[in-house]
Amino acid sequence: MNRIQMKALAKVNLGLDVIRRREDGYHEVKMIMQTVRLYDRIILEKTQKGISMETNLSFLPVNEQNIAYRAAKMLMDEFHIQSGLHIKIDKHIPVAAGMAGGSTDGAAVLYGVNKIFELGLTKRQLMERGVKLGADVPYCIMRGTVLSEGIGEILTPVPSLPDCHILIAKPPVSVSTKHVYENLKLDKIEKHPDIDGMIEALRMEDLHGVTQRMENVLETVTIPEHPEIQQIKDLMIKDGALNALMSGSGPTVFGIFDDREKGMRARDLLRKSSLARQTYLVRPFNIRSYR
Q1: Is 1 exposed, middle or buried (0-12, 13-18, 19+ CB in 10 A)?
Q2: Which residues of the chain carry a pLDDT beneath 70?
Q3: Distance between CA atoms of residues 218 and 94, nearest Å
Q4: 100, 215, 216, 266: least buried by Cβ within 10 Å?
Q5: Which sequence positions are flagged as catalytic?
Q6: Which residues, including other chains, have CB under 8 Å from residue 9's CB and lie 6 or more apart?
Q7: Residue 9 and residue 37 in contact, taking contact as beta carbons nearer than 8 Å
Protein backbone atom coordinates (compact mmCIF):
# COMPACT_ATOMS: atom_id res chain seq x y z
CA MET A 1 0.00 0.00 0.00
CA ASN A 2 1.48 3.33 -1.10
CA ARG A 3 -1.54 5.60 -0.63
CA ILE A 4 -4.51 5.77 1.72
CA GLN A 5 -7.48 8.15 1.87
CA MET A 6 -9.49 8.68 5.07
CA LYS A 7 -12.32 10.70 6.59
CA ALA A 8 -11.46 12.46 9.86
CA LEU A 9 -14.82 12.96 11.60
CA ALA A 10 -15.81 15.83 13.90
CA LYS A 11 -17.48 15.58 17.31
CA VAL A 12 -19.96 17.49 19.45
CA ASN A 13 -20.53 17.31 23.21
CA LEU A 14 -24.09 16.26 24.07
CA GLY A 15 -23.32 17.08 27.69
CA LEU A 16 -20.22 18.59 29.29
CA ASP A 17 -19.63 18.84 33.02
CA VAL A 18 -16.48 19.89 34.87
CA ILE A 19 -16.20 18.08 38.19
CA ARG A 20 -13.20 19.79 39.76
CA ARG A 21 -9.86 21.43 39.15
CA ARG A 22 -7.02 19.11 40.13
CA GLU A 23 -3.88 20.14 41.96
CA ASP A 24 -1.86 19.70 38.76
CA GLY A 25 -4.02 22.33 37.04
CA TYR A 26 -6.00 19.93 34.87
CA HIS A 27 -9.78 19.80 35.07
CA GLU A 28 -11.69 16.57 35.64
CA VAL A 29 -14.61 16.28 33.25
CA LYS A 30 -17.65 14.11 32.72
CA MET A 31 -19.11 14.41 29.26
CA ILE A 32 -20.88 12.60 26.45
CA MET A 33 -19.07 12.84 23.12
CA GLN A 34 -20.80 12.20 19.80
CA THR A 35 -19.17 11.75 16.40
CA VAL A 36 -20.95 13.52 13.53
CA ARG A 37 -20.72 13.06 9.77
CA LEU A 38 -18.79 16.24 9.11
CA TYR A 39 -15.24 15.45 8.15
CA ASP A 40 -11.85 16.50 6.84
CA ARG A 41 -10.52 14.39 3.98
CA ILE A 42 -6.96 13.17 4.51
CA ILE A 43 -4.65 11.51 2.00
CA LEU A 44 -1.36 9.88 3.01
CA GLU A 45 1.15 8.93 0.35
CA LYS A 46 4.55 7.31 0.69
CA THR A 47 7.51 9.35 -0.53
CA GLN A 48 11.26 8.84 -0.68
CA LYS A 49 12.24 10.71 2.46
CA GLY A 50 10.97 13.01 5.23
CA ILE A 51 7.48 14.29 6.07
CA SER A 52 5.79 16.92 3.88
CA MET A 53 2.34 18.38 4.23
CA GLU A 54 -0.24 20.54 2.47
CA THR A 55 -3.73 21.83 3.34
CA ASN A 56 -6.47 23.78 1.57
CA LEU A 57 -6.29 26.52 4.24
CA SER A 58 -3.30 28.81 3.89
CA PHE A 59 -3.25 29.84 7.56
CA LEU A 60 -2.76 26.32 8.90
CA PRO A 61 0.81 25.24 9.76
CA VAL A 62 2.33 22.45 7.69
CA ASN A 63 5.11 21.52 10.11
CA GLU A 64 5.42 20.22 13.68
CA GLN A 65 2.98 22.88 14.86
CA ASN A 66 0.28 20.77 13.18
CA ILE A 67 -0.94 17.78 15.22
CA ALA A 68 -1.29 15.67 12.06
CA TYR A 69 2.40 16.18 11.28
CA ARG A 70 3.34 15.31 14.89
CA ALA A 71 1.19 12.17 14.74
CA ALA A 72 3.04 10.91 11.67
CA LYS A 73 6.44 11.78 13.10
CA MET A 74 5.71 10.06 16.41
CA LEU A 75 4.93 6.70 14.81
CA MET A 76 7.59 6.94 12.12
CA ASP A 77 10.25 7.75 14.72
CA GLU A 78 9.09 4.97 17.04
CA PHE A 79 9.22 2.33 14.29
CA HIS A 80 12.33 3.75 12.59
CA ILE A 81 10.57 4.18 9.25
CA GLN A 82 13.13 5.26 6.68
CA SER A 83 10.84 6.17 3.78
CA GLY A 84 8.94 9.44 3.71
CA LEU A 85 5.30 10.52 3.85
CA HIS A 86 3.21 13.27 2.27
CA ILE A 87 0.09 14.39 4.15
CA LYS A 88 -2.70 16.22 2.34
CA ILE A 89 -5.59 17.62 4.40
CA ASP A 90 -8.75 19.02 2.83
CA LYS A 91 -10.36 20.71 5.83
CA HIS A 92 -14.11 21.17 6.24
CA ILE A 93 -14.46 20.98 10.03
CA PRO A 94 -14.42 24.54 11.44
CA VAL A 95 -11.02 25.42 12.93
CA ALA A 96 -10.69 26.16 16.68
CA ALA A 97 -14.39 25.54 17.09
CA GLY A 98 -14.86 22.96 19.86
CA MET A 99 -15.33 20.09 17.39
CA ALA A 100 -11.93 18.33 17.76
CA GLY A 101 -10.94 19.28 14.21
CA GLY A 102 -7.22 19.07 14.94
CA SER A 103 -7.49 16.01 17.15
CA THR A 104 -9.45 14.04 14.58
CA ASP A 105 -6.85 14.85 11.91
CA GLY A 106 -4.14 13.56 14.25
CA ALA A 107 -6.19 10.43 14.98
CA ALA A 108 -6.72 9.75 11.26
CA VAL A 109 -3.00 10.12 10.54
CA LEU A 110 -2.15 7.65 13.34
CA TYR A 111 -4.61 5.19 11.84
CA GLY A 112 -3.30 5.78 8.31
CA VAL A 113 0.40 5.50 9.18
CA ASN A 114 -0.37 2.25 10.98
CA LYS A 115 -2.06 0.92 7.84
CA ILE A 116 0.23 2.22 5.12
CA PHE A 117 3.41 1.01 6.85
CA GLU A 118 1.77 -2.19 8.19
CA LEU A 119 2.79 -1.55 11.81
CA GLY A 120 0.16 -3.94 13.22
CA LEU A 121 -0.98 -1.71 16.09
CA THR A 122 -4.44 -2.33 17.57
CA LYS A 123 -6.99 0.43 18.08
CA ARG A 124 -6.19 0.38 21.82
CA GLN A 125 -2.47 0.75 21.11
CA LEU A 126 -3.15 3.68 18.80
CA MET A 127 -5.29 5.31 21.51
CA GLU A 128 -2.48 4.90 24.07
CA ARG A 129 -0.15 6.77 21.72
CA GLY A 130 -2.80 9.31 20.74
CA VAL A 131 -3.21 10.68 24.27
CA LYS A 132 0.38 11.98 24.03
CA LEU A 133 -0.80 14.27 21.23
CA GLY A 134 -3.97 15.54 22.90
CA ALA A 135 -6.77 14.53 25.26
CA ASP A 136 -9.38 14.22 22.46
CA VAL A 137 -7.24 12.09 20.13
CA PRO A 138 -8.05 8.68 21.73
CA TYR A 139 -11.77 9.46 21.46
CA CYS A 140 -11.36 10.44 17.80
CA ILE A 141 -9.80 7.02 17.20
CA MET A 142 -12.63 5.27 19.08
CA ARG A 143 -15.56 7.31 17.63
CA GLY A 144 -19.27 6.94 18.32
CA THR A 145 -21.23 7.84 21.46
CA VAL A 146 -18.84 7.77 24.41
CA LEU A 147 -18.69 8.77 28.09
CA SER A 148 -15.46 10.67 28.71
CA GLU A 149 -14.10 11.07 32.24
CA GLY A 150 -10.88 11.99 34.05
CA ILE A 151 -9.15 14.66 31.97
CA GLY A 152 -10.79 13.10 28.92
CA GLU A 153 -8.68 9.96 28.75
CA ILE A 154 -11.11 7.52 30.43
CA LEU A 155 -13.48 6.47 27.65
CA THR A 156 -16.52 4.20 27.94
CA PRO A 157 -18.81 3.47 24.96
CA VAL A 158 -22.49 4.09 25.74
CA PRO A 159 -25.65 3.33 23.70
CA SER A 160 -25.74 5.22 20.39
CA LEU A 161 -27.58 8.48 19.84
CA PRO A 162 -30.87 7.79 18.03
CA ASP A 163 -30.80 8.90 14.41
CA CYS A 164 -31.53 12.60 14.00
CA HIS A 165 -30.42 15.70 12.13
CA ILE A 166 -27.73 17.93 13.62
CA LEU A 167 -27.39 21.53 12.53
CA ILE A 168 -23.89 22.91 13.14
CA ALA A 169 -23.19 26.64 13.09
CA LYS A 170 -19.92 28.43 13.78
CA PRO A 171 -20.04 32.18 14.43
CA PRO A 172 -17.11 34.27 13.12
CA VAL A 173 -15.32 34.49 16.48
CA SER A 174 -12.39 32.62 18.01
CA VAL A 175 -12.32 31.06 21.46
CA SER A 176 -9.32 29.85 23.45
CA THR A 177 -9.96 26.60 25.30
CA LYS A 178 -7.23 27.53 27.79
CA HIS A 179 -8.90 30.89 28.47
CA VAL A 180 -12.30 29.27 28.99
CA TYR A 181 -11.04 26.73 31.53
CA GLU A 182 -8.92 29.33 33.36
CA ASN A 183 -11.97 31.56 33.79
CA LEU A 184 -14.44 28.83 34.77
CA LYS A 185 -15.88 29.52 38.23
CA LEU A 186 -16.87 26.06 39.42
CA ASP A 187 -18.26 27.31 42.73
CA LYS A 188 -20.71 29.60 40.91
CA ILE A 189 -22.16 27.05 38.50
CA GLU A 190 -25.80 26.59 39.42
CA LYS A 191 -26.78 23.85 36.99
CA HIS A 192 -24.77 20.76 36.07
CA PRO A 193 -25.77 18.37 33.28
CA ASP A 194 -27.46 15.10 34.20
CA ILE A 195 -24.95 12.86 32.43
CA ASP A 196 -26.21 9.65 34.09
CA GLY A 197 -29.78 10.51 33.09
CA MET A 198 -28.61 11.15 29.54
CA ILE A 199 -26.96 7.73 29.39
CA GLU A 200 -30.22 6.14 30.56
CA ALA A 201 -32.13 8.07 27.86
CA LEU A 202 -29.63 6.79 25.27
CA ARG A 203 -30.20 3.27 26.58
CA MET A 204 -33.96 3.76 26.10
CA GLU A 205 -33.39 5.23 22.59
CA ASP A 206 -35.23 8.33 23.83
CA LEU A 207 -34.04 11.26 21.69
CA HIS A 208 -36.19 13.77 23.60
CA GLY A 209 -34.81 12.46 26.88
CA VAL A 210 -31.30 13.12 25.59
CA THR A 211 -32.01 16.62 24.29
CA GLN A 212 -33.80 17.65 27.50
CA ARG A 213 -30.57 16.96 29.39
CA MET A 214 -28.18 18.79 27.04
CA GLU A 215 -26.03 21.14 29.14
CA ASN A 216 -22.49 22.54 28.90
CA VAL A 217 -21.00 24.30 31.94
CA LEU A 218 -18.38 26.02 29.74
CA GLU A 219 -21.18 28.20 28.34
CA THR A 220 -21.01 30.15 31.61
CA VAL A 221 -17.69 31.58 30.40
CA THR A 222 -18.08 31.72 26.63
CA ILE A 223 -21.63 33.07 26.18
CA PRO A 224 -21.13 36.25 28.27
CA GLU A 225 -18.08 37.03 26.14
CA HIS A 226 -19.78 36.07 22.84
CA PRO A 227 -23.57 36.61 23.15
CA GLU A 228 -24.08 35.59 19.51
CA ILE A 229 -23.70 31.99 20.72
CA GLN A 230 -26.92 32.36 22.72
CA GLN A 231 -28.59 34.06 19.74
CA ILE A 232 -27.76 31.07 17.53
CA LYS A 233 -29.11 28.67 20.17
CA ASP A 234 -32.32 30.70 20.45
CA LEU A 235 -32.79 30.80 16.67
CA MET A 236 -32.36 27.04 16.35
CA ILE A 237 -34.82 26.29 19.17
CA LYS A 238 -37.35 28.79 17.81
CA ASP A 239 -37.15 27.10 14.42
CA GLY A 240 -37.72 23.55 15.55
CA ALA A 241 -34.61 22.22 17.30
CA LEU A 242 -35.40 19.92 20.21
CA ASN A 243 -32.50 21.69 21.93
CA ALA A 244 -29.28 23.50 21.05
CA LEU A 245 -25.92 23.66 22.79
CA MET A 246 -22.41 25.00 22.44
CA SER A 247 -19.91 22.24 21.65
CA GLY A 248 -16.78 21.97 23.79
CA SER A 249 -15.35 25.37 24.68
CA GLY A 250 -17.07 26.87 21.64
CA PRO A 251 -17.88 28.87 19.73
CA THR A 252 -19.67 26.29 17.53
CA VAL A 253 -23.34 25.66 18.34
CA PHE A 254 -25.29 22.57 17.33
CA GLY A 255 -29.01 21.93 17.35
CA ILE A 256 -30.72 18.54 17.24
CA PHE A 257 -33.76 18.16 15.00
CA ASP A 258 -36.09 15.19 14.57
CA ASP A 259 -37.22 16.57 11.21
CA ARG A 260 -34.85 17.31 8.32
CA GLU A 261 -37.06 20.02 6.81
CA LYS A 262 -36.98 22.00 10.06
CA GLY A 263 -33.22 21.65 10.17
CA MET A 264 -32.89 22.90 6.58
CA ARG A 265 -35.15 25.87 7.32
CA ALA A 266 -33.12 26.82 10.40
CA ARG A 267 -29.89 26.43 8.40
CA ASP A 268 -31.19 28.75 5.68
CA LEU A 269 -32.20 31.37 8.25
CA LEU A 270 -28.77 31.21 9.88
CA ARG A 271 -27.09 31.63 6.49
CA LYS A 272 -29.18 34.74 5.80
CA SER A 273 -28.30 36.20 9.18
CA SER A 274 -24.86 37.46 10.14
CA LEU A 275 -24.66 35.07 13.09
CA ALA A 276 -22.84 32.17 11.44
CA ARG A 277 -20.68 31.93 8.32
CA GLN A 278 -20.22 28.16 8.46
CA THR A 279 -23.34 25.98 8.70
CA TYR A 280 -23.77 22.25 8.11
CA LEU A 281 -26.74 19.90 8.44
CA VAL A 282 -25.42 16.42 9.22
CA ARG A 283 -26.36 13.19 10.96
CA PRO A 284 -24.68 11.35 13.81
CA PHE A 285 -22.04 8.73 13.11
CA ASN A 286 -22.80 5.65 15.16
CA ILE A 287 -20.59 2.59 15.39
CA ARG A 288 -23.53 0.18 15.28
CA SER A 289 -24.57 1.38 11.81
CA TYR A 290 -21.09 0.61 10.45
CA ARG A 291 -20.59 -2.91 11.84
Answers
A1: exposed
A2: 288-291
A3: 19
A4: 215
A5: 11, 136
A6: 35, 36, 37, 38, 39, 104, 140, 143, 285
A7: yes
